[in-house]
Write a structure and sequence with these properties.
The protein is of the alpha/beta class. 39% of the residues lie in helices and 14% in strands. It folds into two domains: 5-16 and 279-389, Aspartate Aminotransferase, domain 1 (Alpha-Beta Complex), CATH 3.90.1150; 18-277, 3-Layer(aba) Sandwich (Aspartate Aminotransferase, domain 2), CATH 3.40.640.10.
């Protein structure tokens, strides 16, 4: 089988900077519980958390590290954000109705928490627009805003198609109307510039640590753009122990229980790597790998490629489907050749409904900052073989 060609980085980045692994291992040896003692192991852990908050603040241009809240993943962060903003009484306080607008490219980690609030009078309205047509999406979104909206929840990048939505312009539209915005940055953090100074409507920005930020699984970040954050869980924080209620300040208000110190140690090193290399260089590298794959697929007429004419509104993520061929079978064949991709719905049925792939799903190819050109060549060779046999 030879070397593993790992092209499933939209799910999780498997290859990390060596400093990430070293930091995790060191934290296991050196760290206790942060804020739970004056001894060196506790202080080591506290220092790691503060360092990671500072690095994240620098990467995302956040004015205070206290606004960086650690979560277990992006889904955890999104649930906190939605629980804080999307409540009937909160929307009523703003004089807004219960309509929540979302893009037609949302992951189930957005759709399901919103649908769970249907009984509370919350109406979720997907704004369905064609792939790689940001101007069409903005026009439709503005029309829906003018009909009334209590909030907007929007992905920055489609996890299925790598489609970059114009999040800064969406934020401007929300800001002019006083509509709170929640951003799912699961596929953009680490490869696109996210500048909180340019996202004035963003109450929360949510992201995992294990994808583009190159950290371990079980880590995530919630950026709080406002003080509206409501505690999703309650418990010990290592501070204000005499109070029966959660602290009223960030980040402790949202960080009940012992944090994942080894994971956060690794996450800090992943962010440090991104700061040093630069999101622009990472994006260019991933697009370059994908471009090579697209060129090769152009010679395979049975392959349907979902990509923009230009890369300005697409990351390195590429989805394909097949004429007279099954995506799941293709992915299984590739797996047998030591090539890792993902096939199916990718937990985003709305995206497939938008594009017309709901019946078939797609096979998704997603490089990372560490993907090599030989991996692109290998998947092309394997797909040619599969197409000959099927």
């Amino acid at each position: 089988m030879g070397r593993l060609a790992y092209l499933d980085n939209a799910a999780t980045t498997m290859r990390k900077p060596i400093a990430v692994r070293r930091a995790v291992k060191k934290a296991f040896r050196k760290c206790g519980s942060p804020g739970r003692g004056g001894h060196h192991p506790s202080e080591n852990a506290s220092e790691i958390l503060f360092s990671c908050r500072m690095l994240a603040s620098e990467l995302f241009h956040v004015d205070s590290p206290s606004r960086i809240v650690f979560t277990s993943n992006a889904t955890h962060a999104l649930n906190i954000a939605i629980n804080s903003i999307i409540k009937t009484e909160r929307l009523a306080e703003r004089g807004k109705d219960g309509r929540v607008l979302i893009s037609g490219y949302e992951h189930n980690s957005v759709l399901r928490p919103l649908m769970a609030r249907k009984s509370e009078g919350i109406e979720t309205v997907p704004v369905m627009a064609p792939l790689f047509e940001p101007e069409v999406f903005l026009h439709k979104l503005e029309q829906e805003m003018d009909r009334g909206a209590g909030a907007v929840v929007c992905t920055h990048v489609s996890n299925v198609f790598g489609y970059i939505l114009p999040i800064e312009r969406i934020s401007e539209m929300c800001h002019r109307r006083g509509i709170p915005l929640i951003i799912d940055a699961s596929q953009s953090a680490g490869c696109l510039d996210i500048d909180m100074r340019n996202l004035k409507a963003a109450r929360f920005v949510c992201m995992p640590g294990h994808k583009g930020l190159l950290g371990p699984q079980g880590t995530g970040i919630l950026i709080c753009g406002s003080d509206e954050a409501a505690a999703f869980m309650a418990g010990g924080t290592g501070a204000d122990s005499l109070s029966p209620e959660m602290p009223d300040y960030l980040p402790e208000r949202l960080e009940a229980g012992t944090p994942n110190v080894p994971g956060i140690a690794g996450l800090a090193e992943g962010i440090r790597y991104i700061l040093k290399r630069g999101t622009g260089d990472i994006l260019e590298h991933e697009r370059s790998i994908t471009g090579k794959i697209i060129e090769g697929l152009d010679m395979m007429p049975r392959v349907i490629k979902y990509h923009g004419r230009r890369f300005f509104c697409q990351t390195g993520v590429l989805s394909v489907s097949f004429r007279n061929g099954d995506c799941e079978e293709a992915a299984q064949f590739l797996a047998g050749k030591g090539i890792c991709v993902r096939a199916g719905m990718h937990c985003a049925p709305l995206a497939h409904k938008c594009v017309g792939t709901l019946a078939t799903g797609t096979l998704r190819i997603s490089p990372s900052p560490f993907t090599k050109p030989w991996e692109a060549e290998r998947i092309l060779k394997a797909l040619r073989e599969w197409l000959r046999e099927n």
